[in-house]
Amino acid sequence: MTQRVGKWERTVYSSEVSVVRGTPQGGVLSPSLLVGGVCDMLLYVLIGFTVNYADDTSSLISAADYEQLYQNARLSADMLQHFCEANFLVLNASKSVLVQFRGRKQNEYPQINLAGQIIPCAEQAKFLGLHVRQDIASGMTKYLGMQQLLQINSNDVRKLVEKKVLARVRKNRSEFVEVIQEKNLAFGALDLASVDLVEFPLMSLEDRKQEWRGKELHGRFLRVLESQNVDKEWSTEWLRTSGIFGETEGFILSIQDEVISTRGYQRHVMHQDVSDRCRLCRVQNESIQHVCGGCSVLAPREYLERHNNVAKVVHQALAKNLKLQEEEQPYYRCKPPQVMEAGAGGVRLLWDSEMVTDRAVEANRPDIVFIDQRKKEGLIIDIAVPLDANVERTVVEKKRKYQPLAVDLKEIYNLRKISVVPVVISTNGVVLKEWKKLMETLPLTTNHLKLMQKAAVLGTANIVRKTLAL
């Protein structure tokens, strides 16, 4: 593959470029030519179990003790480097990572030199879509997807890697791939030409749900989602329409499945020698539910900010509908005025205001109050972002809590009717089946409902990130 000349074309031709070695980036045959050049690597790297997938190479090395393990790892790295040098390949240590499957009390990390650089150590690595953590050897359940939970330990890593590779090979049944499989005799660890390859059955969607549902901890969210009064479609609407970045989306799904590394999770699930007390309040067990909606230290600021962001969507929709403002702003920039009025003694829109009544009323400060003295109508709107399991109870509690205030305001302003409207969405975006009825009571569109849900789940993600970073 030397002494070649190439041209690249878009709207114009490039000048001639001499290709001294290698294959062009983006070339159709480049991946196949690369595989042909590295497929015999496994014959030279004799220590450990090595897997090649395109230009990615992974090695699994084991030993009876740590001293022997470090020695084997260094020898394996040397063999790999010698093979690459002999075949004019370049190793990139900065893109390499070392994950050590170790016991809880083992804190030593080996110094493995690769191409003149020390391979950095990490707690986890991603290979063929599979996240492999350093504590995988404990045999504990790891989160690998919203509807897929697998139990893996150090002895199962090889089988899982083979399963991933074989599944991808079998997806492509082109003639070209079949030729590669036919010629792949003893050159690779998978031995694709073998007639004894085992087919791995794929789980159906219902089987995955059943497995997910059966998890005592990780299945809580699914059990809530399947509750009788929960709107399953709207509770997951943010996944389809919010436009949240993939990384944040995955983080929110991890929160829903309660696989976030809180102190409670570290102690009771990972069995690490740490205190399970909350790092902020120092009183309760630091579970993910406690962080999302039960910490007294987070309540005055972080929980309130999340709550207010949801409330701002409703307030702006009302203000625009009443022609009290022209355009709606992003909720995170909006600063609602405490009082907005249209006409003398006509329409009033109050934000977080204490209502003065003739009789003493305990709950006299709802989030939003709307009074229309011309139509003799009013609304008391209160927003809540509780935990998933508390959504139904919160709706009932809000209606009961503000009913005395509604009676007094009806008399004071001589209204024909006044309604208490609770707007309740959980920390993970769960809503009840009556959620869509808000569009009948309030001047809200489906976009407003989606925006409120997005504000809630993003607020939860930000709270968890900030807390775990302390």
UniProtKB/TrEMBL annotation:
* Organism encoding this protein: Cloeon dipterum
Q: Where is the Reverse transcriptase domain?
A: 1-132
InterPro entries listed in its UniProt record: RT_dom
Q: What is the official name of this protein in its record? A: Reverse transcriptase domain-containing protein
